[in-house]
Sequence to fold (935 residues):
Amino acid sequence: MSKHLLKFTVNGKDHAVVVQSHERLLDVLRDRLGLKGTKEGCSTGDCGICGVLMDGRLVNSCLILAIQARNKKIETIEGIGSAENLHPIQRAFVNWNASQCGFCIPAMILASKNLLEKNPNPTEDDIKKATSGILCRCTGYVKIFEAVKTAAQEMRS
Amino acid sequence: MVEDQATLKKLINGNQFLLVGKSIQRVDSIDKVLGKPIYTMDIVPENALYLKVVRSRLAHAFLKHVDLSEARKYPGVAAVITANDIPGINESTALLPDKPLLASGRVRFAGEPIAAIASYDPSIAEEAVDLVRIEYEALPAVFSPVDALKSSAPSIHQNGNIAKHMKLRKGDVEEGFKQADLIVEETYKSQFQEPIPLEPEAGFVVPEPDGSVTCVGSIQSPFHVQTGIAKILSLRPEQVRVIQAVTGGAFGPKSDEIPVDVLGMAAVVAVKTRKPAALAYTREESMVGHTKRHPFVTTLKAGVKKDGKFTAWQATLLADTGAYASLGPLVVIRACFHATGPYVIPNVRTDAYCVYTNNTMAGSFRGFGGPQAHFAAESHVEEIAKKLDMDPIEFRLLNILRPGTLMATSQVVDEACGLEECVNRAVKESDWYGKREQFRKMSGPKRRGLGIAIMYHGNSLGPEGSDYAAVHMQIDKDGIISFRTGLTEYGTGAPSGLLQIAAETMHLPISYFKLEPPDTDFCSETGPTVASRTITIGGRATQMVAGKLHQRLRETAAELLDCNADEIESTDAMYYQRSKPGRRASFREVIEYADKHGTELKEAGTFTAPKCEYNPETSQGTTYLQYTYGAVTAEVEVDTETGHTQVLRMVTAYDVGKTINPLSLEGQIEGGTAQGLGYALMEELKHKDGIVLNPNLADYYIPTSMDIPEIKTIIVEYPGHLGPYGAKAIGEPPIVLPAPAIVNAIDNALGVRLHEIPTTPDRVLIACKRARKDQRPK
Fold:
């Protein structure tokens, strides 16, 4: 199995790790960098729960080989906000009780952030499309849509 | 307990609540939006072994030879376990002692665990699984409950294929059918629905130096796991500590034997190797290995008079519980009680059977028999209304349960019944008559329809087990109030609701309270976190314990203020003497006083619900202590060329007794509605010869954001006598009605009745074709 040096940026911080060809980005984030906020829900790219942003694009980190992230900028939930300084999207999810079991929430928040950066004034349909790759089994999505709308409003003002 | 409904309602409406009825932020929200490492697989110890499971490939077979030699030799494999390695009893069950932890000698479903392999590197364990050679001797198998009841069917367990036969006998159905002007008989079928908690099952076990073990996992019911693991390891329950990690969805399968399977296999490895051992199911293993919603075949025969009054109802329900019973026997009990839907029917005869097959296991899943019973009943009611040429709302209102009427169980409906208001408000909000008239005139390939379904749901466990919950509360010297219970948070928000109730009871801000993780070392046996019972039963325990702790604080304040405790009032974390409000002490001062004088501020207690008394032979009596009622309408658009159904709008009206947290309540209703929509339209775990054909999320569809209609929620409050402040169960009910409401809406759109769910495009197209054929002139 060949080994490669993977240099990439995660949440604004440069990292260099030696990875094997078959290693997934998901495992490198979780097991090497200790960023456990990215979850594994199916390992086949169907549930979207392992979603992270790679150069401003939402990707399933279970389907991305770690080496594909070479020289890329990765954003995970850990880079979005902190307890003292929640991102407006995080605050809106909290205020709407939009997280129930919480397992899909990191990916949902990243998908929402990606949407709002490109489209600060989304319609409900835009929000539905932007989150359609991530399954949520608890909320019926309604409070998630509301949270994204609220966050959009706050981020615009 | 206030028995009079009017008084209770006045009391509740007139009472200015501090927190109850307000949308308080859930206590678990911040960690979740930050992506904190809180779930089981985020916190596995570094030196842990990882297990992979060897599963049966056949649905029914003798295991002639299991050759593990190559797997044992594989570099990196640390341990291989089979049934022979189990120190205690080889059993992992929910109710009946029918299921081994690891199969030995015989397997009864495809996917049954036979062995497990452990390695520090999970990929090595996975590779070693492929090296296990199993020689099977196939046995005759049976894959439908109808076939399993035939005399020629192979016996899956010693005592035949019926795990439970539940009967309900009210009046005389034969006499009732004689009185009927119209008799309608039909069979309805529903499918295996997969719960799909987004976090698949996971757990790890740490062997302790004293021979005990600590189990951490994604679980609903820590105490069930504790007794299960103790049996497997031959330990005393107190030697098994179970801690619930934050759990990423559950919906039923994490309440019974499945967490015992996961932690049981890990525990056997942990005690054998003296190393921590972890097991996380893959999505496929989860979908095959855990319990799902029972498929039902339900035959209903109902008699009505010309004027629309019921004379008789006969129901036969066959539930496919798969190879092992799990909680199937209790599922058919609930289905049996609810098989008529929420109607007054003088003569009822119901037979509900829980039947073994060689399919994968069915068991607990949100709704627990209610969805299957109501899908059949509410489809049937619509058929009858159509045959009577009556408006379906008028027909329902003529027969629904109202205060003073009798249920099928002959239980008298009490004043806490808001069913009629739910129906009327759903009808109004959905613009029932206007829309139906408008849709009738539509032409072209896309047709719209509006359908309704209504329900009742017996709260909490009722006859399904002894119904109690324990709560512990303790105030430390910094004033933090630790709240502990064995009732778990797996997404519902109910434990946050318990804190709200505690804070309300003690007149203190909710920020003073800290919800501790469920841990069997630190709380008393609480029973399972199931049956939407956290708020109803746990809420009562919380009121009781918080009330006692509040009294302790008042007594301490009285000591401090040198007066009688019954003279102490409190508000906003301030305690004062009623006659001299100037004499006061803050919460902080009271805590400091208690600490200085060695007064321990802690209380614990268990609330036990009164027992439900009924005749098990006839199911006549009190089967549940309180009921949730509801009405749901669905507006659909069906494409008659593709068979695709899009749900455009749903109105969901529920009598919840009393709202504790409006936002969380709506969240439960919307989430349950979405799961019910999936049950109606798209979700079906398909088996062929017992093998699951679609154990992944590419071939098994659950609703995405694109499938969600506008959902309008209406809250109706008829306070019940069981829950705190009159609150009723709401976790499970919302999944019950979408399926019949949507099927009835499709009928309204197309004039076609679908007797089987899910109503996938192929089924809709076939039904359209059949309808066209029937309409052709002969």
About this structure: The first helix of chain B runs from residue 5 to 14.
